[in-house]
Automatic annotation (TrEMBL):
Superkingdom, taxonomy of origin: Eukaryota
Residues of the signal peptide: none
Pfam family, one: CUB
Name of the protein: CUB domain-containing protein
Entry keyword annotation includes Transport: no
SMART domains: CUB (SM00042)
Disulfide bonds: C57-C84
Domain CUB: 57-173
Sorted UniProt keywords: Disulfide bond
Length: 188
């Protein structure tokens, strides 16, 4: 497909699919130009790879400043098994404390079964030890980020998807200073 022919947008499929299939498209633009590609409407899709991309996950790239009143997942009850991966980005130079305030993810508390939430400083969740939680009450311990970006993965692999939920508070960890006044300053 020539990108110049798609100026008004591009819709797939033109007619409803009638069977399972895989479609591969090659988009060709003008030499020397770069292009930005963005989905504007996704319905009934399932993506393979680094997350589910389903509408049920909600927004997956989040600004921490937009979550000042807390963060709740899902917005509406899940209707199927899924995996949601979120990227949370805060102000440059800051670190953050992440604490669950409501938590219903799986029936087992330890070890986690098919349902869990994992929070990590690494996009591939390879941190050791990891912060992986499950159960029916908010974990007592909190996650502390090492930078202004961290990742949250929710895996719902059991049939309890409609009951799965969590809410979290995210606070900036900053600076605590102890100031010692010199003895010669008056205190009145």
């Amino acid at each position: 497909l020539k990108i110049s022919d798609l100026a008004g947008g591009w819709k797939v499929p033109q007619k409803a699919f009638t069977k399972k299939l895989t479609c591969t498209y090659t988009l060709t633009g003008d030499a020397g130009k770069t292009y930005e590609f963005a989905f504007t409407d996704l319905k009934n899709n399932r993506f393979l790879g680094g997350g589910s991309g389903t509408d049920e996950c909600g927004t997956t790239d989040l600004k921490i400043s937009d979550l000042a009143g807390g963060w709740k997942v899902p917005q509406k009850a899940f209707t199927k098994k899924l995996t949601c991966t979120y990227t949370l980005t805060g102000d440059a130079g800051k670190t953050y404390e992440f604490a669950f305030i409501d938590f219903k993810v799986g029936t087992e508390a330890n070890p986690c079964g098919q349902d869990y939430v994992e929070v990590s400083n690494k996009a591939d969740f390879s941190e050791n030890p990891g912060y992986k939680k499950c159960g029916q009450s908010p974990p007592a311990d909190k996650f502390s980020s090492t930078s202004n970006v961290f990742y949250v993965k929710l895996v719902v692999g059991s049939n309890d998807f409609a009951k799965t939920r969590f809410a979290a508070e995210i606070k900036s960890e900053c600076c605590f200073f102890i100031v010692h006044l010199p003895d010669f300053l008056p205190l009145h």
